[in-house]
Design brief:
With about 220 residues, the protein is α+β, with helices and mostly antiparallel strands. The protein is built from four helices and ten strands, in the order E-H-E-H-H-E-E-E-E-H-E-E-E-E. The chain has one domain: Jelly Rolls, CATH 2.60.120.620. The strands form two sheets. Strands 1-8-5-10-3-2 form a six-stranded antiparallel sheet, covered by helices on one side.
Amino acid sequence: MFQINPAFAVPLVMARLDDCQALNAELRALFLEKEAQGDKYRNPEPLVYRNDALFESNFRLFDWPQPCIAQLRTFCLRNLYRAIGELNGYDQAMLQKLHISVESWFHIARRGGYFGAHNHAMHSWSGVYCVKHEDDDPKSSSGLLTFMYPNSAASMFLDMSLAGMKGQYALSPRMLRLEAGQLVLFPSWLLHEVLPYDGTSERITVAFNARFALEGARPAEVPLG
């Protein structure tokens, strides 16, 4: 008997919003309007390295009152809860006990704009929704959302017995060219970056982080004295 079985895996959840053209047009117009107002909507304390060709908003996006934001929020969080349910084997009753806390923002990248490698501390799940990515070479590395292989120890020694592994066993980064209406969900600890965008217009995405509290759960009581 001979078997090859996967022992560890990282979930990358993909979803797509059908008929997203009208929504994305509204989102693009809204984001360009807020970008034009500069520091009023800009993230005041960026932690991850980026250059001047990338605009990052503040982290209150899903709290904005516009109907297009509410529609996007519902789509993103509905798919997140679905993913959590399927991955953990939770039914609807259990999912309703998971109270979510979210931060969200948008990125506008113009030619040369990029976002350095990072993860999202103090959260369990993160997501990226693509509003617009076009006007560049689809076969290039322009604007690719890139996930790093999570086991840094795996590269301590590489020979040809390891270097050519395919699919889920490959040690190379996972590089995604997002399409309008596409949502990617992933564990917040997973390192990722966005490679420089080389288009003639703009690449626009919405990102969010989420963490959860279980209804009825209380922190342990720790004596202070």
